[in-house]
Structure formats: structure tokens, C-alpha cells
Write a structure and sequence with these properties.
Strands 1, 6, 7, 8, 9, 10, 13, 14 and 21 form a nine-stranded antiparallel beta sheet that branches. A four-stranded mixed beta sheet has the order 3-2-18-17, with no helix packed on it. The radius of gyration is 26 Å and the shape is elongated. The protein has one domain. 3% of the residues lie in helices and 46% in strands. By secondary structure, it is mainly beta. The chain has two helices and 21 strands.
Length: 318
């Protein structure tokens, strides 16, 4: 059996968050041209807004407004080749390509402040709507290969293997959690500015192909990806010789993730605030933030391998 699939899905009127209590205009800019909406304070490797300095109305923090201006476009195309046999070789091969683009910022941490755009009216310096681009849910490639062999006997034995693959999740090169270089009160939504002159950053750019074509500008949303995920499963089954059931009672063994890719929390910080440096404010709205490149960019901060699981069960065939 051969199956071809294709699809297009468009979703409109998704809710996007804006901060109604953020200052309407920047109070300054960093050396990168990043707009700053309040007074910045450096504490070692952290950079935060002085409480109240970035708010229109004193006594209130973030005041959320939800506007139905979000959208999502999803394209997909797939191919599956399948052969099922009572005895001998059975196999299945499938591949799915997909592409998802939207302007719907999501928070992986659960902090609603991280759903805010880091730029005024979502316009990054240099033009363009920064939020429009690769979706947080975009996984362009998925594939599966399965094969099994069944013996021709009164007590059939089947052994099988399945290989699974998917692309890594996208992410935006930025800063460590708690670093808020634009002082908007959100410590997880700011993209990094890719500058070879930042100490240590040139080597990081050379080791990450997703950065090389973005030098001299703010990182595009979700322009880098985690490593792809691979997994291998094994299975075996044997008919239970119960004459009254005609060999339809089957003892099943499955091993999931016998081999799998190490996953976990990826270090998305392209640059770090240098704790040995000092934030400089010239009093005219021009700020210089001490930055250094992060040589651990894109690597796992904490490892979490998918658990190996053994499943044993009885199955009745009809």
C-alpha cells in the first residue's frame, strides 16, 4: 500500500499578549541599537529593570491586553509505503515534511511576560515584523522505518525493529533567563545581537551555521534548532499454544528507546553579561552593556534521555 498525503491549515484570530503598562517609547538604546524601556541595573551576570522605571502607571506591574491578531500557517506533505504479510517480511516506511509559520509568541517557561514582543510595535531595528517567522512548534522532518519477520508455523514467532527520527525544536539565540537587556520586565524574550566584535563570539558563530548569515543584526525568531532526535525500538511476539484459541493468543514483548538521542534543556544564550564588566550609562540614553560570547551555546544544560521501557503483554488476534 502506498499513501500520499498533503495538507494546508490556516488559523486566524489567535490571542497575542501586549503590555499596556509598558512605557510607550524607549528611554534609551544599547550599543547594539536595542530599544530600552526603563533604567537598567546590573547585578553580576544579571541585567534587570529598576522596579517602576519602565511603567506608565506607578503601583502596577505588567497589565496584559490580549488582541486577536495572531495567525498560523501549516503546510505538510507525506509519503508512506506499507506491506503487511501473514508470514515472511512486513515493513513500513513513512516520511512527513511540514512547515509552520506564525506570529504567535509562546512562553516555554509559563511566564506570560515572555510572550511579549521585545520591540516597539514588533518592529526590529532594520525593519520587518520580528514575530513573524518560524513557529515554536515547527518540526520540518519526521521519518519512521519498521520491519518485521513472521515464521510460518502453528506457533508463529515475529521479531521486529522500528527506527524513529524527528527534527529538533527551534529556538531563538538570546540570553540566559533573568537577563532583560531592554528593561521591559520580561527576562526571556530578548534576541541577541550577533556581533563578531563581542569577545569570544566569533568562534561561536563559526561553529553554528544558523548564525553565520545573521551577523550584524538581531537574531531572527527561532532561527536555530536543537539536535535531531533518533530512537530505536525492538519487538517480539510468539503465539501461545492454546489449542482452543487456534494460536490467536499472542505473548508480546516491546523495548522502547533501546537507543535514543540525549535530550534536555538546551543553552539558548548566545551572549552573556560579563560579571567582571560594568554597565555604562552616559546620561543621554546611550547604554553600553558588557557582553561576552557563550561557548556553551546550543549545548545541553541538563540531560534527559528518553526512558527505556519494557512492555510485556498478552494480545488476542482476530
Amino acid at each position: 500500500m502506498v499513501r500520499l498525503t498533503a495538507g494546508y491549515h490556516h488559523t486566524d484570530f489567535l490571542l497575542r499578549r501586549v503590555d499596556l503598562n509598558r512605557l510607550p517609547f524607549p528611554t534609551g538604546t544599547t550599543q547594539e541599537g536595542r530599544p530600552v524601556y526603563g533604567d537598567l541595573t546590573q547585578q553580576g551576570g544579571l541585567l534587570v529593570a529598576t522596579p517602576g522605571s519602565n511603567r506608565r502607571v506607578a503601583g502596577y506591574d505588567m497589565v496584559s491586553g490580549l488582541a486577536a491578531t495572531g495567525y498560523s500557517d501549516h503546510f505538510q506533505a507525506g509519503l508512506m509505503l506499507n506491506r503487511e504479510a501473514a508470514t515472511g517480511l512486513s515493513f513500513a516506511v513513512s516520511y512527513l515534511w511540514s512547515k509552520t509559520e506564525d506570529n504567535w509568541l509562546q512562553s516555554r517557561t509559563g511566564d506570560p511576560a515572555d510572550e511579549l514582543s521585545p520591540f516597539v510595535q514588533d518592529r526590529a531595528p532594520g525593519g520587518g515584523n520580528w514575530s513573524e517567522g518560524v513557529s515554536d512548534f515547527d518540526i520540518p522532518h519526521r521519518a519512521m522505518l519498521y520491519g518485521s519477520w513472521t515464521t510460518a508455523s502453528s506457533v508463529p514467532l515475529t521479531v521486529g525493529m522500528r527506527y524513529r527520527f524527528r527534527s529538533g525544536l527551534p529556538f531563538t539565540p538570546g540570553f540566559r533567563p533573568g537577563v532583560d537587556p531592554n528593561a521591559d520586565g520580561a527576562g526571556g524574550n530578548d534576541p541577541a545581537f550577533i556581533d563578531r566584535n563581542i569577545p569570544g563570539l566569533s568562534a561561536v558563530i563559526g561553529n553554528n551555521g544558523c548564525l553565520s548569515d545573521q551577523v550584524g543584526k538581531f537574531a531572527e525568531r527561532n532561527s536555530c534548532r536543537e539536535d535531531a532526535n533518533h530512537a530505536l525500538d525492538l519487538s517480539a511476539s510468539i503465539g501461545v499454544p492454546v489449542r482452543t484459541l487456534g494460536g490467536r493468543l499472542i505473548l508480546q514483548f516491546d523495548v522502547f528507546n533501546l537507543v535514543s538521542t540525549e535530550t534536555g534543556m538546551v543553552d539558548r544564550a548566545l551572549v552573556l553579561v560579563d560579571p567582571s564588566g560594568t554597565l555604562v550609562d552616559d546620561g543621554a540614553g546611550n547604554l553600553t552593556v558588557p557582553l561576552v560570547g557563550n561557548r556553551h551555546f546550543g549545548k545541553l544544560l541538563s540531560r534527559r534521555t528518553e526512558p527505556r521501557m519494557l512492555r510485556v503483554g498478552l494480545r488476542m488476534g482476530y
